[in-house]
Amino acid sequence: MKCYKFELFADYFQVYLMDTEAADDTSDIWTKEALDIKLGIMPNTLAVGTFRNVDVPLEIEVHESEPEIRLDEWDHAAMGYFTIKSGKCAVFGCTDYLPDAAKIELVPGKYSVLSLAKGLGSIITEWEDADDVYKVILWPSISAEHKTLKNYENT
């Protein structure tokens, strides 16, 4: 397993993972379904929905096969997929300058994605400090499944 940690500005409540050679037009990535699962999916791009509009921690794990995940440790979980053709994935906030974005190496191919968030109950307002954490787990897979596994409801 490889692990990467970032602190990204989640402007407009989103951060991105994108093949560095992708030509995806992300202007329509936030469909109703994407908003519901907090995960926008395009062929070579993922938009991860966040619960705050500030700098947020994002951890990315890359596994060789589907890992075992304990969903009881997370407030929100959604499944998705995307393809990396170039072998390089940019990780950035939606208003960041793409050429300056952090890059991670990924073996070219199709990936399943698990997008996770926890600490969401610590959010009082979107711009104040909180203990929310975001994690994206990737593994090679031909699955094109996308759905919510656990939906956060602020009670």
Q: How is the secondary structure organized here?
A:
Elements: E1 2-9, E2 14-19, H1 32-37, E3 39-42, E4 45-49, E5 55-62, E6 76-84, E7 88-93, E8 102-105, E9 109-118, E10 133-140, E11 147-150
Parallel strand pairs: 5-10
Antiparallel strand pairs: 1-5, 2-4, 2-7, 3-4, 6-9, 6-11, 7-8, 9-10
Description:
With 155 residues, the chain is mainly beta. Strand 3 and strand 4 (45-49) form a beta hairpin. It has a single domain, classed as Competence, DNA-entry nuclease inhibitor, ComJ (Substrate Binding Domain Of DNAk, Chain A, domain 1, Sandwich), CATH 2.60.34.30. The protein is built from one helix and eleven strands, in the order ββαβββββββββ. It has one helix at 32-37, and strands at 2-9, 14-19, 39-42, 45-49, 55-62, 76-84, 88-93, 102-105, 109-118, 133-140, 147-150. The protein is globular. InterPro entries: ComJ_sf.
Short note summarizing the structure:
The protein has 155 residues and is mainly beta. The protein has one helix spanning 32-37; strands spanning 2-9, 14-19, 39-42, 45-49, 55-62, 76-84, 88-93, 102-105, 109-118, 133-140, 147-150. The chain has one domain (2-150): Substrate Binding Domain Of DNAk, Chain A, domain 1.
List keywords for this structure.
five-stranded antiparallel sheet; 4% helix; mainly beta; Substrate Binding Domain Of DNAk, Chain A, domain 1; 1 helix; six-stranded mixed sheet; 155 residues; globular
Strand content: over 45%
Tell me the major beta sheet.
6 strands, mixed
What is Rg?
14 Å
What overall form do the CA principal axes indicate?
globular
Q: At CATH's second level, what is the architecture?
A: Sandwich
CATH class: Mainly Beta
Number of domains: 1
Task: Trace the largest sheet across and list its strands.
Answer: 1-5-10-9-6-11
InterPro entries: ComJ_sf (IPR038691)
